[in-house]
């Protein structure tokens, strides 16, 4: 059964003279179902584990296309690895907390923070189109005594 995202991707590919190969669809499916912030190498390893025949080059090229056409978002958590997540509807906005010890990424949404950002933008007559917030620290699993990697 084809998901809405797969159907959309196939249309975008067809409209732009690109091929909707099984490998490209596998990358999209993985990102749509994982709920995680994966880098290209993690995507490659997970697809190999699922016995999918895909090259690293295909993954990198596919990620570029998926970002270009807004299927996924490219995230830079300042750790030298670009991560990817499913691109969500603007009404489903969230921010990130990143553990500097284990690298785990926590998603959160706080209406007070969002309202404060909007109020500040309005105060200085600034039209906010979008924003990204990443908070860096140490998660409870790693504890306060751990040394940050950054």
Architecture overview:
- By secondary structure, this protein is α+β, with helices and mostly antiparallel strands.
- The chain is built from 5 helices and 6 strands; from the N terminus they run ααβααββββαβ.
- The strands form 2 sheets. Strands 1-3-2 form a 3-stranded antiparallel sheet.
- β4 (95-99) and β5 (105-108) form a beta hairpin.
Walk me through the topology.
Blueprint: H1 4-15, H2 22-34, E1 38-39, H3 40-49, H4 56-68, E2 72-76, E3 82-86, E4 95-99, E5 105-108, H5 111-123, E6 134-137
Parallel strand pairs: 4-6
Antiparallel strand pairs: 1-3, 2-3, 4-5
Strand content: 15-25%
What would you report as the Rg, rounded to the nearest angstrom? Answer: 18 Å
Number of domains: 2
- The CATH class of the largest domain is Mainly Alpha
Estimated structural class: alpha+beta
